[in-house]
Every structure is written in structure tokens, then in C-alpha cells.
Amino acid sequence: MAGFAGASSSQQQHLQNPNPPLPQHQHQQQRTKRVAFSEIPGKRTMYEDIQDPNSKGHRSCRCFTCCAWICISVTAFLIIIFVLGFVAVGILRSSLPHINVLKVHSSNISISESSRQKFLTMEISVKLEFENENDKMSLHYEKLRVEIKAENVRIGHTAIPGFSQRSGNETKIDVNTTTTNTRIDDANAEILKLRYRQKAMLVDLFMTGDVGFSFGGLNIKGLPFEVNCQKVNEAYIKSDDPPKCYTKLLSFRGL
Q1: Could you tell me which residue ranges the Late embryogenesis abundant protein LEA-2 subgroup domain spans (predicted)?
Q2: CATH 1.10.287 applies to domain 97-249
Q3: E strand or H helix at 139, and its extent?
Q4: What is the mean pLDDT of residues 145-171?
Q5: CA nearest neighbour of 226 among 248, 203, 254, 255
Q6: Band of the pLDDT at 163, cuts 50, 70, 90?
Q7: How far apart are the first and last CA of the chain?
Q8: Partners of residue 144 on adjacent β-strands
Q9: Which positions ≥6 away from 184 have C-beta within 8 Å?
Q10: Counting CB atoms within 10 angstroms of each CB, which of 8, 137, 179, 210 has the fewest?
């Protein structure tokens, strides 16, 4: 009876565990497997990167936007300054005086010769008229430097003291230059003697200096300008239509 009970117990255990464990070899029993587990951070979504103000992408985007706005602002400011400056220069150029040549006179020409070289002595006088045709703007000239040539031969240079012109004013100025014992070649000597006899000397006048403008309470000083009176024929100057000179503002050429 006891043997039957033991057999029944064995059969119950066999039914509860139909797959009994297989026997393991000794070296497999001694080997153990160790597995380390670590938490893998989940991937950030694009939405989370955009919403996170401390994310690297968000900071880069803000820096780029800031730099772009700074560049746009600086560029716009420079364009505005350039446009305003261009307009201001245009207004000032239109306000320059009208300069006419009223008279050219050559005198006391003398050509001497020594050691097969020729030397020129001559005087040239030019009368200029400065017209300030502005309605409300006054003009102020600092010392003006003048150079005169006759038939492309340099006669001399001089200076005109500074002066001022109110609006609508006309100012006449005499410019006199002299050359004494200046070496000259044969061809130019013959041309000058011929033109002198004909009273038809071709004269060039070049003048540089600084001009200022005043309008109401606004004063602008020291802007360089130049004047060119080219190929003025002594014989063809008419009082009702005198030769005109060309004026140029912001010229830095010197004599």
C-alpha cells in the first residue's frame, strides 16, 4: 500500500513537470553569464527641440536671426546715408557760382636769346566774373590758387584772397601773372610772337580752392572745388556772351 502511494506521488510529480531538466555538464554549470543593463535615452523629437529654448539648434537659430537683422539694419542705414549724401552733393553742385571770362590781355612779350637758347618774358591778365545766382544761399571762398597758360606754355601762377558772395551777387576779379626769362623752345616762341601780333592769344586758366555754403543757420565749409577756363581766345570775347568756365565740386587736384 505504501509502495502504491509512493508510485502515485511520483506520477503526480511527473505530470506536473512533463519536461524534467536536462543534466548539465560540469563546465557549463560552473560558467555564469553576466548581463549589464543601462537606460538608453529616448530620441528627442523635432517638436521637443523647437520647444526647448536651451537646445543647441534653437540657440543657433536665434543667433542667426539676430545677425541677419543687424546686417539688414546696417545695410539699410548705409544706403540711406549714401542717398542723402548723393542728394546733398547734387544740391551743392547746382549752387556753385557761374564763372565767366570777361577779358584776356597779353602784354610786354619779349623773347631773348642766349647761347642758342630762347627765353620768354610775358604778362597775361584775365578778368573773371563770379555770379552767385542762388536765391538764399551765400558762398564763401578761401584762398584760390590760379595757373595761367598761353598756347600751352605756362606763364605763371598766383593766388586770389578769400572773399564771400551773398545771394544774387556778382563779383569781378582781376588775375595777373608774369613770367620772366623762362626757357622756351623755338616752335612755341614763334607761335607766341604770332598770336601776340594778332591779339588772338589762346589762354587756359586753372583754379583750385575751397568753397563754403551758408543757408539760414546751416554752414558748410571747406569743400574743395576747381575751375577750368579752356582755350579762351583773346580776340573773341564778347561782353554779351562771355566764355564760361567749368566748375567741379569735391575735386582734390592741386596746382
Answers
A1: 128-229
A2: no
A3: strand 138-141
A4: 95
A5: 248
A6: very high
A7: 145
A8: 160
A9: 111, 118, 119, 120, 153, 192
A10: 8
Residue 243 C-alpha cell reads as 566764355
For 242, phi then psi, to 5°, come to -70, 155
Q: Which three cell numbers stand for residue 120?
A: 620768354
CA distance 125 to 106: 7
The pTM score is 0.67
Are the C-beta atoms of residues 143 and 207 closer than 8 Å to each other? Answer: no
Sequence spans of domains, the chain: 53-92, 97-249
Q: Which three cell numbers stand for residue 15?
A: 505530470
| DSSP-derived pairing of the beta strands 117-131 and 163-165 | unpaired
Name the DSSP class of 72: H
Question: Who's near 210: CB < 8 A, 6+ residues apart?
Answer: 141, 142, 221, 222, 223, 224, 225
CA distances from 171 to 39, 133, 162, 168, 174 (A): 96, 12, 12, 10, 10
According to the model, what pLDDT value does residue 65 have?
A: 84
On the CB side of 140, CA atoms within 13 Å amount to: 9
User: How far out from the chain centre does Cα 27 lie?
Assistant: 90
